[in-house]
Amino acid sequence: MPVLPAECLEESDPRFARLDEVIERYGRNPSALIQVLHEAQKLFGYLPEQVQMRVARRLGLPVSHVFGVSTFYALFSLRPVGRHRIQVCMGTACYVKGGEQLLADLQERLGVGIGETTADGRFELQAARCLGCCGLSPVITVDGDVYAECKPRLLPAILKKYD
Ligand code: FES
To answer: What domains appear along the chain, each with residue ranges and CATH number?
Structure first.
């Protein structure tokens, strides 16, 4: 599978020490769980199981509670996400003007399916319903940057802009 595999994090990973500092900053207060998870996600890019377990242990909460909160809020991700998010519009106006070809080209070029992240963690590919600029169709966005009247031949130059 071409998606980024779940990380097995070393205990010596410096991000754990930074996470501990965050937890201490909140006085190990269980009611700071959401803030701690938010900062943990900033450090790791998502909330791996090991991170949730550590947060639970340090805040004195059941792991099931931390997992419940992590899965409840849409702002938390339990899987690695790409550094850059590509959205290809598949709304009617974009679809009829070549949105499908753009999506197919990106899937082949990046080696991922819809909703997947490239093995190097660089891009996440999404299909969107309508990006709200139908007059510019077909449209893709990368990290919110709009590329209007996009064509497959323009994709290499667009992707190159995002490390
Ligand atoms: S259909 Fe693509 S922006 Fe609306």
So the answer is: 14-72 (1.10.10), 84-160 (3.40.30.10)
CA 126/CA 88 separation, integer angstroms: 6
Output the tens digit of pLDDT for each of the chain's 163 residues: 444 445 678 888 999 999 999 999 999 999 999 999 999 998 998 899 999 999 999 999 999 999 999 999 877 888 888 889 999 999 999 999 999 999 999 999 999 999 888 988 899 999 999 999 999 999 999 999 999 999 999 999 999 999 8
Which residues sit with their C-beta closer than 6 Å to ligand 1? 89, 91-94, 130-134, 137, 139
- What is the Å distance from ligand 1's center to 89 Cα? 6
- As beta bridge partners, residue 82 has none
Measure the CA–CA gap between 106 and 88, rounded to whole angstroms: 9
Q: Report which DSSP code applies to 9.
A: -
